[in-house]
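Bug report (template v2)

What were you trying to do?
Predict the complex of my protein with zinc ion.

What happened?
Run completed; filing so the output is reviewed.

Input:
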Amino acid sequence: MRIQFLGAAEHVTGSMYHVESNSKRFLVDCGQFQGNIEETALNAFYKELDPSAIDFVILTHAHIDHSGRLPLLVKQGFKGKIYCTYPTMQLAEILLRDSGKIHEVENEWENKKRKRAGLEPIDPLYTEEDAIETIQYLYPLEYGKLMDLGKDLSFEYKNAGHLLGSSIAVIHFSEAGADKTIVFSGDLGNGTSFLEEQPEFIEKSDYLVVESTYGNRSHLGISERGEKLVAIILKAYEENGTVLIPSFAVGRTQEILFEINHYIRTHDNEESKLLSQVPIYLDSPLALDATDIYSKHSAYMSELIKTFGESPFKLKNLHIINHVEDSIALNFNTSSKVIISASGMCEAGRIKHHLKHNLWKPNTHVIFVGYQGEETLGRAILTGVKTVRIMDQEIAVKAKIHEVTGFSGHADETQLTNWVTGIKGLEKVFVTHGEVESSHYFADKLKTEYGLDTYVPKLYEWVEI
Ligand SMILES: [Zn+2]
């Protein structure tokens, strides 16, 4: 078997592995590079990849950095099945359509600039139409059901506990008379999410491709994150300020809503009474759609969620913002409030408007509840810059900036280590899906402390196993 690393190699985004077995050629994930211009420039397919020659795709979860180039694959001739879990199919549908729209809008802007510079217009990476076309190829499977892919190849999904429907792909193959297994971790959850179960442990595998987003970091404990979040919201309420929570529309937003709901329902004190009075605005149509999908799939979620009945994300003080006019009106609303809006790294979406209107106010509190990629607006604000540029305007950062890391959808260093070292029989471990420092730190740790044969592959590198 040969594997080529077409993304997430010394990068966090762009997850895509091209696998050639004796009889099949397939991809594990087909994600988009996100971040700065050098990263997004990598989104054109590797020149030697022929989408029409790919037999199928094994999709681990719906996040765009794992699914976002599927429409490009279909546009360029792919006609096979895209395996995924049932919730992943539903989430991928809304995320891919949204991604198609974003590409169209960004392309329009780009072409206006090109026109002024006397350059020919270019096509978007793909459109919403391409995304809709892609949805028909999604093929849902249950966790734990072995899918036969031919005489020498089969695979099954295990719950990765990272996002609704997220999975670990366990692929069995036979070569030269020997039965082997390779596991692709996908993104692994941190085991302390209120929504997700623990990532399933894998008993035995010969090879492993593992993520390392937080390969060199530890998260806050579960109780601290709720207390910290509530304390910041109540502090802002006291100061008559606005709390901005840039949040990924799918997954993190539902976690935040549930965390607040959970706090109100499980605490009988002054704080919980106050918290239930703070107006909370959910200002993201995508987050709203995702919350509906989450509400329908409690069977795939934690035991705790099931005890909250039909609508674990419904709060009395929650206001849903659908229309742009209502989102703009929030800028003129001077009372204390919480605004949860996408995108999570502040690179796009309505959060940029809210930041523009509130970052310069000392009684604004910005709470980062997720990973901030290198060179994103979110990372800049988080690292304490004094001013930022938002929509061609210089904005002073006078707001109080907070980071609550316990919400991360990713396992931290200890959790990753426990998960990897629980797998018996590993001959080789490929460490991917992390920034350079994190991937190499984690690979070295597994090698020196646990004697594992680890390797951090380079982008476009082929390895033979
Ligand atoms: Zn993910």
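What did the reviewer find?
Residues 61, 63, 66, 162-163, 187 surround zinc ion (CB under 6 Å). The chain is about 35% helix and 20% strand.
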